[in-house]
Amino acid sequence: MDAAFKPATYLVKPADFGKVDEPEWTATVGGDEGIRYAALIQHRIVRALREKAGDRHPAEYLALLLEESSRKPYLSRKIHGRLPLTFAELTNWIVILGLDPGPTFELPGITARPAKR
Has residue 76 got a pLDDT over 90? Predict the structure, then answer.
């Protein structure tokens, strides 16, 4: 994955990242389907986080759940799609938030291709 990958840049309006149920996504350019898929999964997890946080600030709520209050600025960048979640963070957030990962992977508009051998 590109070190400069910012999930929110895959939205037509990056400010909608994690805030809108069905945002408008940019066109997929050949070869970036996997990264776009990662951005969509992160968007959906952040959307669920915002719903669970309710009136609380999402980064503060998540920092409390993760017991990482000193990392609020870092978590905030992930919540706004300025940094990608690592695989460990993604799975941890799913568990901490009590999410069902099943529907997360139903991704309309992305055609799965068999792996090349």
Answer: yes
